Amino acid sequence: xxxxxxxxxxxxxxxxxxxxxxxxxxxxxxxxxxxxxxxxxxxxxxxxxxxxxxxxxxxxxxxxxxxxxxxxxxxxxxxxxxxxxxxxxxxxxxxxxxxxxxxxxxxxxxxxxxxxxxxxxxxxxxxxxxxxxxxxxxxxxxxxxxxxxxxxxxxxxxxxxxxxxxxxxxxxxxxxxxxxxxxxxxxxxxxxxxxxxxxxxxxxxxxxxxxxxxxxxxxxxxxxxxxxxxxxxxxxxxxxxxxxxxxxxxxxxxxxxxxxxxxxxxxxxxxxxxxxxxxxxxxxxxxxxxxxxxxxxxxxxxxxxxxxxxxxxxxxxxxxxxxxxxxxxxxxxxxxxxxxxxxxxxxxxxxxxxxxxxxxxxxxxxxxxxxxxxxxxxxxxxxxxxxxxxxxxxxxxxxxxxxxxxxxxxxxxxxxxxxxxxxxxxxxxxxxxxxxxxxxxxxxxxxxxxxxxxxxxxxxxxxxxxxxxxxxxxxxxxxxxxxxxxxxxxxxxxxxxxxxxxxxxxxxxxxxxxxxxxxxxxxxxxxxxxxxxxxxxxxxxxxxxxxxxxxxxxxxxxxxxxxxxxxxxxxxxxxxxxxxxxxxxxxxxxxxxxxxxxxxxxxxxxxxxxxxxxxxxxxxxxxxxxxxxxxxxxxxxxxxxx
Length: 642
Ligand code: TTJ
What we know:
Bound molecules: ligand TTJ
Structural class: alpha+beta
CATH superfamily of the domain at 22-224: Histidine kinase-like ATPase, C-terminal domain
Strand content: 15-25%
């Protein structure tokens, strides 16, 4: 190549690069999902995942993540350092390729599993394109190599700016997300903490340090788990009573699929199965989860027969029975993962099914031989679960025609007259008196009212037969029309919106969480499909010159007062409960679709791993954490993103 050709090719490459990164800036959502807080945090995972790859390859032991004072982020590792020599094809240093060419992940010279990039897997160049500026320092051969970019543009050629220890190598990246692209530019320590803790659990022995140096909120934590996912299970079962001491753990590689499974039962009734593919959470499971279920059900049924816990005439226990109160982490590493389903969150590779099944079957069989007392406890719990399930089914069959059919809607329900579910909504109201006002206030055609007496059952502390026997819960099931648990059918839902309307106090918040726990456990799609809302009654009424103003927070009260004037003409009333409002006030402030505030209950994929724990904390024996939580309301909002 003559000098001239080289120059031409360099120019051609530059143009391509700029077009590539410009496309990212034009349609950021396509590359990182969103430009909200979620996308902002995603940038950090994209960078960190490159360093995690290096750890998985066996060359990096520590990753240091820092939130800087200006909300820029620094990620530092002690890996081999991104190569700085000229990449033949692009004619620029490899490190520059990584940051400026779209889809050039950190992959040089194969081997290992492609983990980089989390859900979207887009890599460092996308982070660069979406940053106001980004600086990279690579320590290699005793030198510090440095380059700076602004909105993806190279500012100057890669250059040596100093020296480092001859035997130290590593990569350091600092970037400031572009405030013209992101709606939110302030990092939340808690969000990064959860994800990085999870990454550390999934990468045995990797040490991740997270530091916040912003004024007034300085904090530093280290996540380092020698036990990997085994410790993850212990962490998730914390605050619950374990059925036996050991966490069962196994690992193996079959047909190129590396499998790790860790599990332990607690004395609760809900299943908590979390699955990951190449460190990425798969909320919808897939073949790896199918393999786990098969292995668990078959192995334990075989064991129960062998030990005569199951008599010859008795039918096999179901998978569900064995998974009652079971916390499981399944982590597979696979070269070419295929994601399926609407949201691409479900693993499709069939070799993963076989790999998980065979690794778990072999190890669990051996474990049960060695630990017969644990095997016995597991089987006995499943037998009880099976009995409860059968009792619930019988109750359901005998009462299906009456109690659970639309023809016999609960007496307390004031149903709406419109039969098109899309137009209808149901208010679940705390207490008979508020229920009465709501019935008077409502639009009959489209708004149904179901008053509930007292607190509903805590379904984390009861088996399905007891849940089905609870009157308040039965009323809801019947009114919704969907059935429950395995029978749940969202297409039968009789209302588009299910609105929980409780007092704005500690008891009301408790009822909210009991209700959400019930929905989450037995009617999850109601939440994931966005049908569940919390009504927001006002906290204050301000009357002045026959005009009424409503404030939904203390801040809002202050705002209103400064607008209308702070003098003795104002009459300020603090509402203690819904019952203090008459029908027209309730309508105006909380029920009128044109003026009310509703909060939609959502579950963020990123926080789903801690949802079960959130409910456990809320519903647990210990009163203190619940009170703190409900009063502060912080974690609730974070995890459920209401
Ligand atoms: C690839 O194979 C040759 C030796 O270097 C390997 C590599 O690129 N390692 C690597 C990349 N370690 N750390 C990174 C990395 C770290 C951060 C913080 C950000 C990025 C984009 C890459």
